[in-house]
Design goal:
The complex is a heterodimer of chains A (294) and B (337).
Chain A: H1 4-30, H2 38-56, H3 59-83, H4 88-111, E1 125-126, H5 138-142, E2 144-145, H6 146-164, H7 166-176, H8 178-183, H9 188-214, H10 226-236, H11 241-261, H12 269-293
Antiparallel strand pairs in A: 1-2
Helix pairs in contact in A: 1-6, 1-9, 1-10, 1-11, 2-3, 2-4, 2-9, 2-10, 3-4, 3-9, 6-7, 6-9, 7-9, 10-11, 11-12
Chain B: H1 2-34, E1 40-46, H2 54-69, E2 72-78, H3 84-93, E3 98-101, H4 107-113, E4 121-125, E5 135-140, H5 142-156, E6 161-168, H6 171-187, E7 192-199, H7 208-220, E8 225-229, H8 234-244, E9 247-252, E10 263-269, H9 271-283, E11 290-294, E12 301-303, H10 311-325
Parallel strand pairs in B: 1-2, 1-3, 3-4, 4-5, 5-11, 6-7, 6-8, 8-9, 9-10
Antiparallel strand pairs in B: 10-12
Helix pairs in contact in B: 2-9, 3-4, 5-6, 5-10, 7-8
Chain lengths: 294, 337
């Protein structure tokens, strides 16, 4: 039987890292920096969160470490892309490969285990009064991850930042036409640095969510493709914060449905499991076709 | 003239040296003929000790071997795939003549190395090598230990709903699943086993977040015991079990330390037993070769007798082990053709 409450909880759990990663990638994309290194950035952050948490015993310091790591990795990404003018895809790929190996190496030298780290303190979960008593969604609001709770404010903030502030307009201008922006007196490089690093922060948050909020440990390659799904969410959400959130929720929902249906309907798991990706291709195609018509 | 003298001198010295070397070799050989060389057991680890997994397990076997047979043992840690052969070479040249490799990742190196050293006996865990005379390979009857875990799960369950989380839906994992389901149904024919798989690519083994989500879904459908065969992803299942206060069943090694309050038992694949059996065969002068299955009969698989395994559960488990051993009971092995 499908448990509706479970599908709702799982939708949000699956959507959180995708939405945060997507928002992170979007800032870069909007300023003209392609970042396929979201996966690696998230993985680095997930790892440093656990290490900081392990040594300090405080999940808050773990969260801080995750954010700072996101900032650092995205700074490097911006440095290579804007200052050194290296191909963006190559750098993103390098970040992913580097993250996958460095975290395993560090894990084995710190914890003596290449596969996973010991369990650490988790960020607290929030129980929201009134909402937790509602049927169906009650279970979700009863023990909500702090980071999931932060997603909506972050999306609103990102929307505001991008469309209602001079900085956002500059980011868009730089991304659309860097030469024109430069002539108009905008410091193109600085704008790109700030945009990419802002994105690094939310990517870091996505990594911390996986390792010290949803789970309480680091497992090698635990991001498992969520960084790439986030890129799909950016495309699907048409580079808009709200669109990305909706896309992430859609992917999360598809995933939750897939999970709930397994073992219930007698068709091979592979077909159910590929549903989110098939739907993505379909949705992106429809989306593109519609935007071409306009 | 001086040069010629130097050359002759050098030649004489070289001859003398080779002669000496030859002599030393001869005496050694005659020694061998009289008495078989002492068994020296070397263990090649994939990675390092402290992994709470295959390495620690194999090392445990090595310690037991040293204790029971009084043989010299040594382990080497190697986490560089390209260096396995160098490490094997190091062990063999140091006189180790029984060599255990604890990971299927070492198979390629072993296939290249073993035929060059016909007088050394090798074994490898968790893979199938049958075409080299001096190599023994060990695989696990995972369906049997999963069956035992299924019995424990069914007897502990109050809701009669039990979860199974697999990594990828491939025969290796279906072997766990089918054995487990048969175990559950042997006790409670009407119990439900909810089977969920993580994914279709290799990331399925490293995706604890999805494993946790799958487990949460099982729990919301009433599961109160969950078993996994999902590698490191299984950590996510264990976390979900701890969070929701239900029973978890570990796999491969004793995973009790990961959730001391919730770990009902673990389905064991005992690599230490393989090291032991192999060394024993070498000590007895009849080294194993070809493929050996570690099963209930040779105590190569089993379940952990934890504090939560009550007497009646252990009785049922031991009864099933006895029946499997004497052939009264056959657990379906999806991989046997």
């Amino acid at each position: 039987m499908i448990s509706v409450a479970s599908v709702i909880c799982n939708t949000f759990a699956s959507a959180t890292p995708i939405a945060l990663g997507g928002i992170g990638g979007m800032f870069g994309e909007r300023s003209g920096i392609v970042n396929i290194g979201l996966e690696g950035t998230m993985l680095f952050s997930a790892f440093t969160s656990v290490v900081a948490c392990y040594y300090s015993g405080s999940a808050w310091l773990g969260l801080l470490a995750g954010l700072l790591t996101g900032l650092l990795i995205s700074f490097l990404h911006a440095f290579f892309c804007t200052t050194l003018k290296v191909d963006h895809t190559i750098i993103g790929l390098a970040v992913n490969i580097l993250a996958s190996s460095v975290t395993v190496y560090a894990s084995s030298s710190i914890f003596g285990n290449k596969g996973f780290t010991p369990s650490v303190e988790k960020l607290p979960t929030i129980s929201i009064p009134f909402l937790r008593d509602l049927p169906l969604v009650g279970a979700f609001f009863g023990s909500m991850s702090l980071i999931t709770l932060m997603v909506i404010p972050i999306v609103i903030l990102a929307h505001h930042l991008l469309y209602k502030t001079p900085f956002g307009i500059r980011v868009i201008a730089v991304g659309e036409n860097p030469q024109a922006a430069f002539v108009a007196g905008i410091n193109v490089q600085r704008t790109q640095y700030i945009a990419v690093m802002l994105g690094g922060l939310t990517c870091g948050l996505a990594g911390s969510f996986l390792s010290i909020s949803y789970l309480s440990m680091f497992v090698r390659d635990m991001v498992s493709g969520r960084g790439f799904i986030a890129i799909a969410a950016i495309l699907f959400g048409r580079y808009k914060p709200v669109g990305i959130l909706l896309a992430a929720l859609f992917f999360g929902f598809a995933d939750a449905i897939q999970i709930a249906l397994q073992g219930i309907i007698t068709i091979p798991n592979e077909i159910i499991q590929c549903a989110p990706y098939a739907l993505t291709i379909l949705a992106v195609t429809v989306n593109e076709a519609r935007s071409k018509k306009k | 003239m001086k040069k010629l003298l130097a050359l002759i001198l050098a030649l004489v010295m070289a001859l003398a040296m080779t002669a000496c070397g030859g002599n030393a070799g001869d005496t050694e050989n005659t020694g061998d003929d009289e008495k078989a060389p002492a068994i020296k057991v070397g263990l090649l680890l994939e990675g390092s000790l402290g992994d709470e997994s295959i390495n620690d397990q194999a090392y445990e076997g090595l310690l037991k071997v040293a204790e029971d047979f009084g043989v010299e043992t040594k382990y080497v840690e190697c986490d560089d795939t390209s260096k396995y052969i160098d490490y094997l070479e190091g062990l063999v040249s140091a006189g180790f003549n029984v060599i255990c490799c604890d990971s299927f990742n070492q198979e390629e190196a072993l296939r290249e190395f073993a035929p060059q050293h016909p007088d050394v006996h090798f074994m490898i865990l968790d893979t199938e090598v049958s075409d080299i005379d001096n190599v023994a390979s060990f695989t696990y009857a995972t369906h049997e230990c999963s069956y035992l875990a299924g019995i424990a799960a069914a007897m502990k369950s109050e809701s009669n709903v039990i979860g199974f989380i697999g990594g990828m839906q491939i025969p290796t994992i279906e072997k766990f699943q089918v054995g487990f389901e048969e175990g559950v149904h042997s006790v409670k024919p009407d119990a439900t086993v909810i089977v969920k798989y993580i994914g279709n690519d290799n990331s399925a083994w490293n995706d604890p977040a999805t494993a946790k989500t799958l487990t949460m879904d099982c729990i919301s459908n009433g599961a109160d015991v969950c078993y996994h065969a999902a590698g490191a992803s299984g950590m996510g299942m264990i976390e979900a079990c701890v969070e929701k206060g239900i029973w978890a069943i570990g796999v491969n090694i004793d995973q009790t330390h990961l959730a001391p309050e919730n770990m009902l038992t673990s389905a064991l694949t005992k690599g230490d037993r393989a090291v032991y059996l192999f060394t024993e065969s070498c000590v007895n002068g009849t080294p194993l070769s070809g493929m050996t299955v570690l099963n209930c009969a040779n105590e190569g698989v089993g379940v952990v007798e934890s504090e939560f395994m009550t007497e009646d559960i252990m009785a049922a488990v031991n009864d099933a082990v006895a029946k499997i051993v004497n052939g009264e009971l056959t657990v379906t092995n999806v991989m046997s053709y």
